[in-house]
Fold these 2 entries.
Entry 1:
Amino acid sequence: MSEILSSSAAALAGKLSAGELSARELCQKFLAALEADGHNCLIGVRGEEALAEAEAVDAARARGDKLPATAGLPLVIKDNIVLRGKLPTTCGSKILHNFASPYDAHVVERLRQAGMIVLGKTNMDEFAMGSSNENSAFGPVKGPVAQDRVPGGSSGGSATAVALNLAPLALGSDTGGSIRQPAAFCGVVGLKPTYGRVSRYGLVAYGSSLDQIGPLARTVEDTALLLGVIAGHDGRDSTSADEPVPDFSAGLGKGVKGLKVGLPKEYFPDELDKNVRARVNEQVEKLKAGGAKIVEVSLPHTKYAIAAYYIVATAEASANLARYDGVRYGHRSSKAGDLLEMYRNSRSEGFGPEVQRRIMLGTYVLSSGYYDAYYLKAQKVRTLITRDFTEALGQVDVLLTPTTPTPAFRLGELMDDPVSMYLQDIFTVTINLAGVPAVSVPAGAVDGLPVGAQVIGRHFDEQTVLRVAASLEGDE
């Protein structure tokens, strides 16, 4: 059984297509693994529904129907991606503890069309607000390598499930690093696609101009496979780009000979953990050995990124989360009072402290007298950061940076220090502000804890990003 659970998604797809493995058998093995999970990765599991879908795939294959290559492959999805059926979509929050979606997200529709089977919904920081997966109403996820360490956030449940072989693939969402940072901490691959590459229809919004759904997997090949399933235009999302979807797997074996790789000097500061620096430098040497040309570049407005990000993101969160008022759906306070008291009590009881902190910050920066001083200025800085990336990526094919400044920290270590927690995103938030694609790929370990290297590319050039990531894979 362990051999099946640790197999790549690509290998499992081959076994399913060849009839060496039934979709039901595969589904049962992973469901059993999920039920035995001791890391609190899952918020809910779709046992009966998943098995019924697996049986339907097996029946279609037995009839000789032409099926997608991914038919029968199981995966888990983050609990801010809506899924119709019995399983609630909670976003890791008390305020949505009983919300059952009447419709599927666009990415779920794509998964169903590809014959893939959602096994369950993964634990997450409440409304995707966090860098440690400690802000969930369902309790923290324990790291896959050391249970006293965080798995990263906010897609920590998805990354941990993949790292522990509880699922071959997972979907997460990334607003400021929420796929890449957990991928780095858990020793897996995590991709934030270009903003607009994957439809946000059915993704519960945190920061609408920053959010993007993306894949987590154990290999770059599997990451490319899942991206190919979920990418594409969707008219229901006004920010969805009508761009052709290439074969993301096509260039994975081409190597890096002739490519220019930029090292942004701002991402290698003196304060960077020396062991993280050493692991990333080893990846640089791999690229050199493969024939890539290494070039130092500059992203001069990086120092303003955290401030700009936490103004833009919280402002959008304040607007997006105004809808949770206890009237139409979700938690409603049982305390008596007038309408205003009901709003206040429902939101105070339903939202956790980190979400409340971000709503208050976002409301403040949007308020009269402060809009120009904070929000408008942050948007101008965002434009400068985007320009930095455009100019740097005009000189090179990709950029290479650390994904995180340190390996995974201990559970509880930064919970009372929100500024230090926010600084964990220093190497990832710029990518969301600029809207470019980036992938975190395992880059070895520091004291037994995984670290990641981040490959950043031009808008809609995930192919080159994945090509470089594949050349870094293995032999850490």
Note: The radius of gyration is 21 Å.
Entry 2:
Amino acid sequence: MPKVPSALAEFPYIHWEEVHFRDLDAMGHANNVVYASWLESARIRFYLHLMELRLEQIGLILAELTLSYKAPAYFGERLGIGVRVGTIGTKSFELEHAIVRESDGAVIATAKTVLVAFDYALGVSVPVSEEFRRRVTEWRFHHE
């Protein structure tokens, strides 16, 4: 079981990644584009877990990604990606993230993603489901 750094204490869901050789750039640290992939894995795993869905049942589309780099990550390091729900609107919601190094608790990056509820069959945005709202409320209650 990974050691959870204190910087992730406020995040009820943590997804773990390891920095692989393929993730490195010419400077020897994780390339900036890899962070978006780590965040994608974390938010999808979180949503599948929260909603008890299979991958093909996800009805979301990424509308925005804001990422702030704080420190480099290097080969072999284990990183915890914290996920928590921020605001929930009519057709979209925010997820807040922190990427934290397991070994020393350093914050590697922080991020925000905005996801839109989307009906892929019709090709249109739809209201955020009441089921999602209910599960987020229950999740928050059980993880405070």
Note: The chain has one domain: 6-142.
